[in-house]
């Protein structure tokens, strides 16, 4: 079961979202699965679980960051330069996976990636994503959000690598009040966003091909 991988470089969020939606709507049982690696310009994305979400205000010393309504699960998060974003356009029935199993596969891939650099990462049953201990606190380093249509998923994950984390302070990341975030650069990992993104892309491709 082949998987096509695409490295898109820096993309506009709305354009990429529309491309994912169009791909999923038009695919057939013969359409190969795809995994896309990209980065986005600064944007907040607000998922379907929008109740009681604290919307961002203008960040001090920066322009206003747009808020885009999206059709993935979850609440609000931030994307920006230096964050590796991977979208999984996968036929779950073909892969004999359910959504929970796919989430586990994604989280395991991120944990294995960080373990290469002697960084211990964990998941939390009540808060999807991947977390690390930094400055004596559990901080989020990767977020997940998926959408399923006709047993085919789209959307995916974001891994903080070497970005400006300040915009996260204007929101409750993923809806959790007081949740702090970190990135691989601050953990002493001297790899670029492109390098870690490619590594994670390859890991996901290998696991999904099994």
How is this structure best described in words?
37% of the residues are buried. The chain has 210 residues and is an alpha+beta fold. The radius of gyration is 16 Å and the shape is globular. Helix 3 crosses helix 4 (193-209). The protein has a single domain, classed as Bira Bifunctional Protein, Domain 2 (BirA Bifunctional Protein, domain 2, 2-Layer Sandwich), CATH 3.30.930. The longest helix has 17 residues, at 99-115. Helix content is 25%, strand content 34%.
In CATH, the architecture is 2-Layer Sandwich
Provide mean pLDDT, rounded.
Answer: 92
Question: For the terminal residues, how far apart are their CA atoms?
Answer: 9 Å
| Domains (count) | 1
Characterize the quaternary organization of these chains: single chain
- Give the overall form: globular
Radius of gyration: 16 Å
Reported by name, the CATH topology is: BirA Bifunctional Protein, domain 2
Order of helices and strands: EHEEEEEHHEEEEH
Derived structural class: alpha+beta
CATH homologous superfamily caption: Bira Bifunctional Protein, Domain 2
Major sheet: size, sense and barrel closure?
7 strands, mixed
Number of helices: 4
- How many strand elements? 10
Helicity, as a percent range: 10-25%
User: Into which percentage range does the β-strand content fall?
Assistant: 25-35%
What is the top-level CATH class? Alpha Beta
The residue ranges in which pLDDT falls below 50 over 5 or more consecutive positions are none
